[in-house]
Amino acid sequence: MGSRELSLRERQVLGIIIQSYVVTAAPVGSRYIARNYSLGLSDATIRNVMADLEDEGYIHQPHTSAGRIPTDLGYRYYVDLIMKVQRIDEDEKRRMETDYGQIAMEHPGTSRDVLLSAAKVLGCISRQLSVVLSPTLSDAVFERLDMVLLSSTRMMVILSIHSLFVKTIVMELPLEVSRKMIEEVSDVINERLAGLTLSEIRRSIAHRLAGSHGDGALKDLIVRSAGSLFDESPIFERLYISGTEYIVDQPEFKQPERVRELITMIEDKFSVARLVEKSGHMSEALRPSDMDVTISIGSENSTREAEDLTIVSTPYYAGNMVGRLGILGPKRMDYEHAVRVLNYMADSLTATLTEAN
Questions:
Q1: Residues 205, 197: contact at Cβ < 8 Å?
Q2: What residues make up the domain containing 146?
Q3: In angstroms, how far apart are the furthest CA atoms of the chain?
Q4: Which one of 230, 251, 278 terminates a domain?
Q5: How many other β-carbons are positioned within 10 Å of the β-carbon of residue 284?
Q6: Alpha carbon distance 156, 199 (integer Å)
Q7: What is the pLDDT of residues 307-317, one digit of tens each?
Q8: Are 128 and 250 found together in one domain?
Q9: Helix crossing, 335-355 with 111-126: angle to 10°?
Q10: At residue 275, what are phi and psi to the nearest 5 degrees?
Q11: pLDDT of 43 above 80
């Protein structure tokens, strides 16, 4: 099915069916196409073209005497070979810059604030579910460590990493420590480890702290805890989501059981994070040419819960770290618009995090 190159006429009809279905969420018939589009084709000819497209699996008839709607294969052909993504228009660009800037100014400071701002603006502009996955930290460059004494046997450890990223852990201590002890050990750690990646620190911390001044028992505890202190955050803690109110308002999710399924999936942050992460490792066949965007449609997704969804995602950069942001919505989404706003937000996010270095 769908193994040959479509003719110009077939491409035109398939494109019209998809574009119309995106707007109306209603099956598209040959008479509608003949009346509303100047293709120079009769109603009967368009019906024949649609019959060929249906035979090859690009469209299907949801019920008798209805028009046709796209299949996953039809959407895939459209995304790869028909759609043309224009540059974002100035009004939308201005709106994104204004909204992103305002939210960022209201919550200045850490990467968490920046990524949450990006998710909110992306959800609002795309009118879909937006997701931002923060980078893995193995290649992140360590800047400094601060230890805050909460009690004589409890302290908070704050790791500052390039590009506004911060990791915070509360540690229960098997020994009593003083403020002076943690200041001395913090100074040693910052002097000997600053500028290394977290993976380098995990591998060599014992060697690098050997022979340094400071309380030996506290240093030993930090060395033993390096696997958690300087390790990745769990994937679900790296996920920022916004726009649930937009996706549940789509016609595809009007039935109560569909809404429940969707909300259950969204609330499982681990599954959503894995979906977005996996979308970044898909084959080039799922990547439109000349774009750094991956589009995974329906059955191409890795879980049954996402078989009725499209995931559009792209990387963003923070120094030598790579994160991912995406849009999740029904297969009947405006793909050109999704790619435009996603690319622009990825560039804005990269610029913000690069300037923070």
A1: no
A2: 141-230
A3: 88
A4: 230
A5: 8
A6: 21
A7: 999 999 999 99
A8: yes
A9: 160
A10: -60, -45
A11: yes
